[in-house]
Design brief:
With about 190 residues, this protein is mainly beta. Helix content is about 5%, strand content about 30%. The strands form two sheets. It has an eight-stranded antiparallel β-sheet with strand order 1-8-4-3-2-10-9-6, with no helix packed on it. A two-stranded antiparallel ribbon has the order 5-7. It starts with 10 loop residues before the first helix and ends with a strand.
């Protein structure tokens, strides 16, 4: 099962951020669709302290992920949805499980039979430690079904210490998990 990858970015974001797949642009100018499912989640760092927020918005094409995070190390970082809505910093976020991977897909944006639903492009963090980005993930949804991030145990958005190489199985050799957000339906 392949998914369409659309690449769009502002001139400023393009100059500062390599884009390999997915929808990416600055947070300015994006509005939520009325009536669409939406989830807000706090992002915590390796020390368990809050470092930002993510908002997930269901769209007709997938889930729009808006991230506003500070205090990350500069450089390229793997950026994935993981299978469980558990972010325990004391266990280095291993509680989030593996990548969210509905269906029989392989990991990686650059492999035949991939990507997982949880695979997204690496994200660039500048010297200021800020990640202010939007990514459209066409392989997941917030609606009910096998591709839903909001299943019984939820899911997690995980940021890794290193960039994903887009091919190593099963997780892209992206290194330690340095930030995490629990993605669950709100009551």
């Amino acid at each position: 099962m392949n998914r369409l990858a659309v690449v769009l970015c502002t001139a400023a974001a393009f100059a500062a951020t390599p884009v390999l797949a997915g929808f990416q642009m600055s947070n300015a100018g994006m509005a939520a669709s009325p009536g669409a499912a939406m989830v807000h989640a706090k992002v915590i760092g390796a020390d368990g302290k809050e470092i930002g927020m993510v908002m997930l918005q269901d769209t007709p094409s997938g889930v729009l992920v808006t991230a506003d995070i500070k205090g990350l190390p500069a450089g390229e970082h793997g950026f994935h949805f993981h299978e469980k809505g558990l972010c325990d910093a004391a266990q280095k976020f291993t509680t989030a499980g593996g990548h969210f991977a509905p269906g029989a897909t392989k990991h990686g944006l650059m492999v035949m039979g991939g990507p997982h639903g949880g695979d997204m492009p690496n994200q660039h963090v500048g010297a200021d430690g800020m990640l202010d980005v939007q990514v459209l993930n066409t392989g997941v949804t917030l609606a009910k079904g096998p591709k839903s991030l909001l299943d019984a145990d939820g899911s997690a958005l995980v940021i890794h210490a290193k960039p994903d190489d887009y091919k190593t199985q099963p997780s892209g050799d992206a290194g330690d998990r340095i930030a995490c957000a629990v993605i669950k339906a709100t009551a």
